[in-house]
Amino acid sequence: MQHDHTGPMHRRSIALGFGGLAATAALPDATHAQPAPAESRLDIVLKRGRLLVATFSTNPPVCFVDEGGNPAGFDIDIARLIAKGLLSDETKIEFLTVDSSGRWPAVLSGRADFGIAATTIYPDRAIRIAFTGPYMDSGISILVRKDSGIRTLGDLNDGKYTLANLSNPQMADRAKRFVPRTRLLTFEEVSAMMLAVKSGQAQAMQMDKPVLDWYAAKDASLTVLPEPFGNIHNNAIFLKPGDFPWWLYLNTIVGELRTGSRYDEYAAVFRRWFGRQPPPPRFYAMP
User: Fold this and answer.
1) Does 197 share its domain with 255?
2) DSSP per-residue codes, the chain
3) CB within 8 A of 287, min separation 6: which ones?
4) Other C-beta atoms lying within 10 Å of the C-beta of residue 10
5) I need a labelling partner for 145 at 20 to 30 A (CA). Which of 12, 45, 91, 118 fits?
6) Do 49 and 133 lie in a common domain?
7) Residues 130 and 62 in one domain
8) Residue 256 lies in a domain
9) 281 vs 17, higher pLDDT
10) How is 135-194 classified by DSSP, letter by letter?
11) What integer is the mean pLDDT of 208-217?
């Protein structure tokens, strides 16, 4: 019986071999040879046999540490689905804990292969970080203490109230535009924002709506304001720019999870963490 030895690494080696032959044939002579391209992170991961992923540890229900001390959440499960597709084993993954400002250095330095940490696509971020297509549609909302008397964004826009933010310019800009009179407190982690609200240090916090819905469902003293806090936005995987093969692989698998061959797996994870069906599959266009 003839056996098929064309696994992922073998097929990629063949492809690279043909590419190398074609490039050599196109050169007029050896003196015009160019330096060999840097090795793609895709090749590095395949050789290593394990994914290194940067994520948060205090942001339920998307990325947090559960009671057993293990990474858990929607983002964590999406990363495991990627490991399953790439390495045929969802356990071949290691999570590196970062905070809001530490996520960018983690991927730019190469410590992590990519990051997945409730991270929104913004144009100013895309100057220095590469994003895949979105793996989740989201939006920002406001969580408030029920005893605060805040029922609308108009109520919140008052100097007697304090809004908890993460340390990113987008949150600061959003607060300045929509509630300019409100005092601001800035934190590095979502858990610290929540503690500030629970303790009365702040009366409200802004964050992705699925996250705030989860907190409100767990605590009857909290509620989410019905008005969106700005426009709908998209959360995406982020990685070091300039590595097209790695970006293409990640972008492709995100597309298949959202709208293609792996949608059923995506939908099961979505229902597990958010208690509802995700948006139905639709035509997926690369960004």
Assistant:
1) no
2) -------HHHHHHHHHHHHHHHHHHH-SSGGGPPPPPPPPHHHHHHHHTSEEEEE-SEETTTEEE-TTS-EESHHHHHHHHHHHHHHS-TTSEEEEE--TTTHHHHHHTTSSSEE-SS-B--HHHHTTSEEEEEEEEEEEEEEEEGGG---SHHHH-STT-EEEEESSHHHHHHHHHH-TTSEEEEESSHHHHHHHHHHTS-SEEEEEHHHHHHHHHH-TTEEE-SS-SS-EEEEEEEE-TT-HHHHHHHHHHHHHHHHSTTHHHHHHHHHHHHSSPPPPP------
3) 131, 132, 133, 251
4) 11
5) 118
6) yes
7) yes
8) yes
9) 281
10) EEEEEEEEEEEGGG---SHHHH-STT-EEEEESSHHHHHHHHHH-TTSEEEEESSHHHHH
11) 88
Q: What CATH code is carried by the domain that includes residue 223?
A: 3.40.190.10
Largest CA distance in the chain: 78
Q: Give the model confidence (pLDDT) of 25-50 as tens digits.
A: 344 444 455 555 689 999 999 999 99
d(CA 122, CA 125): 5
pLDDT tens, 64-79? 999 999 999 999 999 9
Q: Quick one: which of 207, 169, 171 has its CA closest to 191?
A: 207
Sequence length of the chain is 287
Q: Could you give the CA distance from residue 234 to residue 137 in angstroms, rounded to a whole number?
A: 5
The verdict on residue 150 lying in a domain is yes
Tokens at 9, concatenated: 């690494």
Q: What is the pLDDT of residue 38?
A: 84
Residue 184 domain boundaries: 139-231
- Distance in angstroms (rounded) separating the CA atoms of residues 49 and 89: 10
| Distance between CA atoms of residues 196 and 92, nearest Å | 36
Contact between 212 and 141 (Cβ < 8 Å): yes
For residue range 127-176, list pLDDT tens digits in order: 999 999 999 988 899 999 999 999 999 999 999 999 999 988 889 999 99
